[in-house]
Each structure stands twice: as C-alpha cells, then as structure tokens.
Specification:
Belongs to the ATP-dependent AMP-binding enzyme family. This protein is α/β, with parallel strands linked by helices. The chain is about 30% helix and about 25% strand. The longest helix has 17 residues. Bound molecules: adenosine-5'-triphosphate and magnesium ion (MG). Magnesium ion binds next to loops.
Length: about 525
C-alpha cells in the first residue's frame, strides 16, 4: 500500500464511511450485553436514524460545525450515536472516559474550549462545580436531570433526516487527550483525514475484518483505542461490533467470545494475560476466531504460546500512540516472531533513529520515529506549540519509545525512553525482564524499574504481584524468581531487588505506571 492511498479526498467526513452500510437494512451494527445479561442490537440503518435525530437536536440547540463537544458515555449503543451525530454535524469531539473526575474534566473543558457536554446521567454530578469559561450547553442521556437537556426525549421529536456537514479532510474531528502515563495529558489534534488513514491501515491489514464478521474490541469510549478499533475500524468496515458493558473478568470474557462466535478480537495485553492464566482453558472453544490482536502495552510471549496451544491462533501485536495510528504491527499472514511487535505498517514511514536524527544500524537501540509525511500523524498538541516542537527531530516525530530492528526489519520494543534502566553501563529495557518474570507460574503481573544503587548507579528492581495461592513469605521465592529470569535473559538483566505488591499502579485505562514506582524508589533511597 502506498502513502497516497492513505490520503483522504479534500472534502471528507468520516461518517460517510458508516452511512454506506445503512442502505442494507439487515446489516447489524452493534450487539450489546451488560453484566446482568440484558441484550440489545441495532442495525446500521436504525443506528443512522438515531444519529440523524441527535444531529438535529444538536443544531436546534445552536451547535454548529467546529464547536467542541465533550462526550462522557460508557459502553452503550448511545455512545456510538452521539459520537457519530457530533462528527456528522462537523463538530469536534473530546472523547472522555467515565473514569475521569472533576479535575480531569475541568482541565479538558477549559483547555479544549468546550462548548457542549454530553453525559450519561450517572456522571452529571461530576460537572456540578465546573467553572465555565463560556456557557456550556449540556445534554444528558438515560434519565432527566435538572439543568440538562434530556437528549432521549428531544430525539424522539426530531426528524430522522440530517445532512452530513461538508467538512474538509483537514478539519479537526477529535481532540484526544493522551493516557497521562507519564504526566499531564496532552490534547492531540486529529482530523477527518487522519481517520481515513487509520481506517485504511488498521481495519484490513491488522484487525482483518471480513464481511459479516463479529468483532469484539474491548476498549471503552473515551480512549483513543476505542476510536481506533470499536468505533472507526468496526463501523467503518461494516462489521458487527460486540459491546460488553461489564467489568473485566477473564472467564466471562472467554464465555462471551464463545457465545457470540466472535471472529475478531482486539484486547489489551493485560486482558490477554489474565485470560491466559485461567485454569481449565481447555473448557473453552473458539473455532470462529480468525484474528486476535493486542495493543497499548508490550505483549508477552507467554500469551502468544498459550493462545496458540489452546485456541490455535496467533495473538498479533500492534504498536501505536494517541498521536498517530497503528505504526508497527504483525499483520495477518506475516511470520510472527514472538516478542517482536512486527514491522512498520503499510503506507506509514516509521524508523529507528539516533540522537542526531539518523537511521540506526540493524541491532542498534534508538528512538522509534515517524516521518512527518506520514498521513496518520497528528497535526499538533492543541494550544501547545512548545510541546509539539519538542516532539520533532529533523523530519521526524519522535515517539518517546525505544526499540531496535533486526535484519528482517522486525522491531523489538525496549521500553519507553524514561523507563530504560542503565545499570553498570548496561542499557536494560524493562520489557524483556518483565516478559521473563511473567512466564513464571507464580507471577500474575509485574513491573520492572530502575532503583538507585551506590555502586551500579541503578539496579533492576521488580515489583511483583503473585498469584493468589502463592505465599510471599517463602524464603526461597525471590531467589527462585531471579534464577528463572537469569535462565531466560542475559544474566546481568536479572532483578537484584524484588518487592511484592498486591496490585500495580495503573492509569485509568489500565496501563502500568512505572513512573510512580520509579519515583517511589528515588524517594525511599533518598531518605536512607
Ligand atoms: P502519555 O503520553 O500521556 O504519558 P501514553 O503514552 O500512555 O500517555 P497513549 O498514547 O495512550 O498514551 O499510549 C501510547 C504508548 O503506549 C506508546 O508510546 C507506548 O509506550 C505504549 N504502547 C502502545 N502499544 C504498544 C505495544 N504494542 N508495545 C509496547 N508499547 C506499546
Ligand atoms: Mg505518550
């Protein structure tokens, strides 16, 4: 695939992709289930009627092309309706997770110049003490709330016809805030044209959605991963999306995969890891699953081995950021090298560069970087030219992640630049150590960070969450785990210190926050 094929026509609105499928009355867009087993489903035709009704309500209330709207709706069909309606009207969406609290929302409302808020009713309280810099137009879904326009009731009265806004492909579509794994979230500007480029790469090449497929992409609305997969890729390719609005539980997940004959699965490494640790995996059969992908964090070899053994499927890794799209991945049919995140995706120019901005030699660790001419690269950080400029080196956008490339062009992830450990002059990526540790049958989850050390500068320290039945007071435990790592990696990488925790610090999207553990280490050593 050539770069040119990822460039959208000058006039383009991403909702046109979904509208095509509304002409086929039987095509099912979404199947929904909640924790108590209630179910619903909606066709594309019906979904687009609701979209049009919502679009009419927005414009009757004075909203227009270019206005910024913050949406906080969980895994409900209504989330799809309001996102599509706002985009169809040419408005800009700030995707917001229901886990955000008042201060997070305030930050987005002020920084993002928000004009309207759409909230599922249980979250309206979070807006009670918000300071408005301009009067907010507020819509609630699911129940009436004082001071809010009740969208459900207004939609019933509205027409099911609504014209699509005549947007340009470089009009802003999303203002997506990053996960905040390493600091304050950044407001990433994405256009309708970006959505086009993402859709052309991720859906056919990586997710491999085929006509008639049921696709389960587990990310929740509010995260860029939801925009990537369940929203753009599933609806943009006419698939049937499964939406499960319930807590993560590995056994429940496996039984849903079975119940809905899921064909394509897109999960986080943590979800895969916890499914792989379920006992009696042979009780589950997934004969319809033809594609399984993982993104967001490094994927452990353990997961790949177990899914191959029990479900005869390769879990394929994919790497990308809120700032871009799927940059590197294991596409279907490509030989899988366990532990590697794959190769640059078609049409995207991704390279590993050194501090001078030159492309690294094979085997040399450097920064994963994206050439500025890549269509799916973000435009800028909203109202933050300094941070935007900091992210570029020559003709490249620098991701902040380190990797090396092998002689076959496969990328091997080392870690986030800040997470890399330098010990006695050796550079150690935390991922390789974690990958080895998690293979041990006692280990449920782990995170590896640098811990200050007088002699070595820093040493490798592991924080380990043990499986429930394991006794952390066992005197041989630590040595046992250390020997295990030494047997799987270069021995100098083994964790010299191990601390046991009951859980790891994570972002609201479930990513491990090594920064927090590292800061704790720095602070505790200073005190000694
Ligand atoms: P912030 O930028 O606010 O600190 P964040 O970088 O976690 O947060 P995201 O854009 O959601 O926000 O995540 C992108 C990052 O996630 C990547 O830069 C990388 O560190 C990590 N990542 C994503 N996919 C993979 C993968 N397949 N393997 C390894 N790491 C991955
Ligand atoms: Mg980031």
């Amino acid at each position: 695939m050539k770069r040119e094929e990822l460039i959208a026509p000058e006039k383009y609105n991403l909702v046109s992709e979904m509208e095509r499928f509304a002409k086929e009355p039987k095509r099912v867009a979404l199947k929904w289930e909640n924790e108590v087993g209630e179910t619903k489903q909606v066709t594309y035709e019906n979904l687009m009627k609701q979209v049009n009704q919502a679009g009419n309500v927005f414009s009757q209330n004075g909203l227009k092309r270019g206005d910024v709207v913050l949406i906080i709706v969980p895994r409900l069909i209504e989330a799809y309706v309001v996102y599509l309606a706002a985009l169809k009207a040419g408005m800009v969406v700030i995707p917001s997770s229901e886990m955000l609290r008042e201060k997070d929302l305030q930050y987005r409302i002020t920084h993002g110049d928000v004009k309207a808020v759409i909230s599922y009713y249980p979250y309206v309280d979070q807006f009670e003490h918000i300071t408005e810099t301009q009067p907010l137009i507020k819509f609630t879904i699911g129940a009436e709330e004082k001071g809010w326009i009740y969208l459900d009731a207004e939609m019933e009265k509205a027409s099911t016809k609504f014209a699509i806004a005549d947007t340009n492909s470089d009009d802003m579509a999303f203002l997506s805030y990053t996960s905040g794994t390493t600091g304050n979230p950044k407001g990433v500007v994405h256009t309708h044209g970006w959505a086009f480029a993402h859709l052309k790469t991720a859906a056919p090449k990586w997710l491999c959605i085929e006509d008639g497929d049921t696709v389960w992409a587990t990310a929740g609305p509010g995260w860029q991963k939801w925009i990537w997969s369940p929203f753009l890729s599933v609806l943009g390719s006419g698939g049937t999306g499964l939406v499960y609005n319930g807590k993560f539980n590995p056994k429940k997940y496996l039984s849903l995969l079975q119940k809905y004959d899921v064909n394509v699965l897109c999960c986080t490494p943590t979800e895969y890891r916890l499914m792989a640790k379920v006992d009696n995996l042979d009780e589950y059969q997934l004969p319809y699953l033809h594609s399984a992908v993982s993104a967001g964090e490094p994927l452990n070899r353990e997961v790949i081995d177990i899914f191959r053994k029990y479900f005869h499927i390769d879990v394929r890794d994919g790497y990308g950021q809120t700032e871009n799209t799927l940059l590197v991945g294991v596409t279907k049919g490509m030989e899988l090298k366990s532990g590697s995140m794959g190769k640059p995706t078609p049409g995207n120019r991704v390279e590993i560069i050194n501090d001078e901005g030159r492309v690294c030699a094979v085997g040399e660790v450097g920064d994963i970087a994206v050439h500025v001419e890549t269509p799916a690269l973000f435009k800028k950080y909203y109202k933050d030219p300094e941070r935007t400029a900091m992210q570029f080196r020559g003709d490249y956008y620098v991701t902040g992640d380190k990797a090396k490339m092998d002689e076959d062009g496969y990328f091997w992830f080392e870690g986030r630049s800040d997470d890399i450990i330098i010990s006695s002059g050796y550079t150690i990526g935390p991922f390789e150590v974690e990958d080895a540790l998690v293979k041990h049958p006692f280990v449920k989850e782990c995170a590896v960070v640098a811990s200050p050390d007088e002699i070595r500068g820093f040493i490798v320290k592991a924080f380990v969450v043990l499986k429930e039945e394991v006794d952390s007071n066992d005197p041989d435990l630590t040595r046992n785990l250390q020997d295990h790592v030494k047997s799987l990696t270069a021995p100098y990488k083994y964790p010299r210190r191990i601390e046991y925790l009951t859980e790891l610090p994570k972002t609201t999207s479930g990513k491990i926050r090594r920064i927090e553990l590292r800061q704790k280490e720095m602070a505790s050593v200073k005190q000694v």
